[in-house]
């Protein structure tokens, strides 16, 4: 399995307006609002979750990558060798741990500018790869 983007959060001034705009342009459906997000799923399984933020704020973005168990092992080793702090949870309350959600493995870490990165070996909900 090659590395795939699973989902990302897209900041907007108005999450519903932006989600509807993109869905309309691309011929996609707007999903049901979930908390602060209005999702738009692409045909290849990537979901763009639109969130409203102040236009002038610089906000951390989140990128999730669905990878194989072997790719996880290699990435995890590189993260550890580089001394990068990693977490089992997105709120970064469990440093130095990985999670085993849905029968897979996952972790979160920050890139050099503070974007939240995530690697997972199983999609959320335990659905088949």
From TrEMBL:
Q: Output the Gene Ontology terms for molecular function.
A: dioxygenase activity
InterPro entries in UniProt? Glyas_Bleomycin-R_OHBP_Dase, Glyas_Fos-R_dOase_dom, VOC_core
The region annotated as signal peptide is: none
Q: Which UniProt keywords apply?
A: Dioxygenase, Oxidoreductase
The segment(s) forming the VOC domain are 4-122
Instruction: Output the superkingdom of the source species.
Output: Bacteria
Q: What is this protein called?
A: Extradiol dioxygenase family protein
Which species?
Kitasatospora kifunensis
Q: What is the lineage of its organism?
A: Bacteria, Bacillati, Actinomycetota, Actinomycetes, Kitasatosporales
């Amino acid at each position: 399995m090659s590395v795939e983007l699973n989902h990302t959060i897209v900041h907007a001034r108005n999450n519903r307006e932006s989600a509807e705009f993109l869905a309309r342009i691309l011929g996609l459906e707007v999903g049901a609002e979930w908390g602060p997000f209005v999702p738009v799923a692409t045909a290849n399984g990537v979901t763009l979750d639109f969130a409203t933020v102040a236009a002038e704020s610089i906000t951390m973005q989140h990128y999730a990558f669905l990878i194989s168990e072997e790719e996880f092992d290699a990435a995890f080793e590189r993260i550890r060798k580089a001394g990068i702090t990693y977490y089992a949870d997105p709120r970064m309350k469990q440093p130095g741990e990985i999670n085993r959600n849905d029968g897979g493995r996952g972790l979160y870490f920050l890139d050099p500018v503070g974007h939240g990165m995530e690697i997972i070996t199983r999609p959320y909900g335990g659905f088949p790869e």
